[in-house]
């Protein structure tokens, strides 16, 4: 079976129509096409119901002795268990809920900054960062320079990805941490993070992973990846806006954090400063159950665990999204686009269906505005990645265009996007 036949079989096997029917926003959108999912995905009805149920049935503070408050405690505990299963955590106690991934990156960086300040001999004062990451996973670490941190840059190659061979000479007995993305939010490149952990741990260093953009596209497995910290957000993962931090229990336990005196000095409590958005945590719980449902429906079995259903669901999503990625790659090339990141179909497994591109010298802003007129939502700009823009020789003012797909998108939508792009290029050229 050739690639075309395989793609057709994968697309036919994936129940995209049934999945789209679960998303109210898609049903109400009319002709509009959601191709800005990297800025936030839509949510299924079950997630909306979970949020509404919280707000209507038990919108109270946890920690009380009355029924509604006890229910909030239980809903948070249930969400911890679900998210722990989603990422294959060692324990639900390692899951910490909060506002967003950026705030958690800052929380961990402040704790590491305190440890750096205490290390008067500066034995482990180096942090490795990349030029492919969202600036939240760069500037946050650079802010530790006053605490004595020194930095080494792991730079993207011309082929649009980070290579572990380039990481090895950067890591030494002085390395405290390697901070990198699992998947570039801007260009869609997937990093071999399991190999990153092997290199870092061999030198006694830790690994911090930004998993925000990978979350909706593939299976997260902190045990297989052997990382030390990981942050993710709900808003790309079919949930409302919220974030979570995972860390090894003992790692989080020794991380200096701000906490009020009455808060236990252990995870997750020491990390969760203040009241977070309980209803959105309930939504995240429902989002995990939605991903389980995909796996359960594709291959019904009474014997599979929740984690096994997640594995099956995310595997099916990944296979289907590879079909979308190949199709979008062909469409963009057919329109004469300069594609940033992995543009070789033979390396399609190194990316998710997030495409950053430009068309000659045409204005990205103008193209995106024309697309909006044609009821297609895409994005232009610097993608919150100034160092990557510089690396790609792109202006911060104009940047590039990004079209980003998830598993509720269709091949037909890609074809309509391609027709619109060809018409816009003809109009503006």
Automatic annotation (TrEMBL):
It holds the Pfam family Aminotran_5. It comes from Mesorhizobium opportunistum (strain LMG 24607 / HAMBI 3007 / WSM2075). InterPro entries: Aminotrans_V_dom, Cys_dSase-rel, PyrdxlP-dep_Trfase, PyrdxlP-dep_Trfase_major, PyrdxlP-dep_Trfase_small. This is Cysteine desulfurase family protein. One of its GO terms (molecular function) is cysteine desulfurase activity. It comes from the Bacteria. Residues 33-417 form the Aminotransferase class V domain. Keywords: Pyridoxal phosphate, Transferase. Its EC number is 2.8.1.7.
């Amino acid at each position: 079976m050739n690639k075309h036949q395989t793609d057709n079989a994968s697309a036919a096997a994936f129940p995209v129509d049934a999945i789209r029917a679960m998303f109210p926003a898609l049903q109400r959108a009319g002709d509009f096409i959601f191709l800005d999912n990297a800025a936030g995905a839509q949510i299924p009805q079950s997630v909306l119901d979970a949020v509404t149920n919280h707000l209507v049935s038990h919108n109270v503070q946890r920690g009380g002795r009355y029924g509604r408050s006890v229910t909030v405690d239980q809903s948070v505990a249930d969400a911890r268990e679900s998210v722990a299963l989603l990422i294959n955590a060692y324990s639900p106690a390692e899951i910490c809920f909060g506002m967003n991934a950026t705030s958690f990156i800052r929380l961990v960086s402040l704790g590491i900054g305190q440890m750096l300040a205490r290390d008067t001999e500066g034995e482990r004062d180096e942090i490795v960062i990349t030029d492919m990451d969202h600036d939240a996973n760069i500037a946050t670490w650079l802010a530790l320079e006053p605490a004595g941190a020194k930095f080494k840059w792991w730079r993207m190659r011309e082929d649009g990805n980070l290579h572990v061979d380039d990481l090895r000479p950067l890591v030494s007995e002085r390395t405290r941490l390697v901070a990198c993305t699992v998947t570039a939010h801007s260009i869609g490149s997937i990093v071999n993070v399991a190999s990153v952990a092997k290199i870092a741990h061999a030198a006694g260093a830790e690994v911090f992973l930004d998993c925000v953009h990978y979350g909706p596209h593939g299976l997260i497995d902190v045990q297989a990846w052997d990382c030390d910290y990981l942050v993710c957000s709900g808003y790309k993962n079919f949930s409302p806006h919220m974030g979570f931090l995972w860390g090894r229990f003992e790692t989080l336990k020794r991380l200096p954090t701000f906490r009020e005196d009455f808060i236990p000095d252990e995870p997750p409590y020491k990390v969760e400063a203040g009241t977070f958005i309980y209803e959105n945590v309930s939504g995240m719980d429902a989002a995990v159950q939605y991903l389980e449902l995909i796996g359960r429906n594709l291959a019904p079995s009474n014997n599979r665990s929740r984690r096994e259903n997640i594995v099956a669901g995310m595997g099916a999503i990944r296979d289907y999204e590879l079909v979308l990625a190949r199709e979008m790659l062909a469409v963009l090339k057919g329109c004469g686009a300069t594609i940033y990141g992995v543009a070789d179909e033979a390396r399609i497994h190194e990316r998710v269906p997030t495409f950053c591109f430009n068309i000659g010298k045409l204005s990205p802003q103008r193209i995106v505005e024309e697309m909006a007129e044609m009821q297609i939502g895409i994005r232009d700009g610097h993608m919150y990645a100034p160092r990557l823009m510089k690396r790609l020789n792109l202006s911060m003012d104009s940047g590039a265009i990004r079209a980003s797909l998830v598993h509720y998108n269709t091949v037909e939508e890609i074809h309509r996007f391609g027709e619109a792009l060809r018409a816009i290029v003809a109009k503006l050229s």
